[in-house]
Specification:
The protein is mainly alpha-helical and 373 residues long. Helices cover 64% and strands 0% of the residues. Among the domains are: 118 residues, no CATH class; 140 residues, no CATH class. Helix 3 packs antiparallel against helix 5 and helix 11 runs parallel beside helix 16. The chain starts with a helix and ends with a helix. Keywords: Membrane, Transmembrane, Transmembrane helix.
Length: 373
Amino acid sequence: MVVVVLIQELIPLQDPAAGWSANYGFWIRATVLLAVGVRTLTVQATYFIDGVQISTARQFLLSVSVSIVMTAFSVTLASHVIFPIPFFVVSTAPVMGTVHLVLFRIIVGSHIMHHMVTKHSQLAQYSNFVNAQAFMALVYPAYEALFRATEGSVYQLLVIPLLPVIKLTMKNIVLRCTSHLEDMTPEAVIFTVDLFNGIYMATCMQSSSSAFTVTAITLTDQVQTLIMLYGLHQRTNTALARLHDTVGASGESDNLLTALCLLCHDRDKFEKQTQKGVRKRSSLPNVLPTNDRGLLEMLDTISVKPSSVNVRQHITSHSCQNPRRQQNSASSSIFGELSRGCCRTSSRLIHPNTFVLTHELDSLKQIESRLPA
């Protein structure tokens, strides 16, 4: 999908003043982006709502059908009303939602829709996540309009700090919407909030004629990142020190993930830890080696006992087969996948520029509060 989006950028755009009929490049781009967007929403539904399985062929047919119908509607609207269509994505969103639902019912089937309706809480979380993405399509253009309106005035200095505030707010909204799918949280934030923020930060910097404004935007973003990284570093060190006391092998556990691995492999010590509210199974089913399945089953047999540490285990691997059909799911974790030394799995460590830093800070606070002082 990323390749398709990049390729469509090669399609040349024509002068909007030439009219809707001459702007074939715009309509081709719109069709491609609509198809990609519809397929993305469809795939997300299969992860947010249990039991929803849609074949690749139906996903492709649905995305192509919706994009063609919406492009035909947009061309008709442009030819009879106005071109370019003001706020194209936002103004046509209600029609697109209706067309998407109708064609979803026809192509995917009524039984899938009825099943989705029965999953009230999951459907609500999925709807909130989709609405959060749509909300960003309103908030960021509004911010850009405000930024341009204050160009060259002292009020622009007050507008610049709003961008990191919007970024932090949207991250927390997406985090709440994906709280039951912790494994998807990093990707969800990276390809929604971080993407929107990066695009509009670059747009504002490009439109500004003041070097001071560009410098202020850059410094504001860097300061926000440094503050989050510092807080994450401090919380990690605090949690690691307490884990060393619990595991008792500070020489072997020189980082947080290794210490958690050692704790998971030590049944006696693990039994003494608080397990209330701990989810050992991942929201994303994956194929696990035999020894890792044995470790996960061993952790499942440990009874819940109140104690001093609340650690979320994460033992997962990348799927070699269709992950939606595998039931040996890995354990879920705020830290991503544990290192290879834990259970021979691929490790997705914290990346300071893309990982959800605010999510990590909140999670470390929860662990720290339960570790022995």
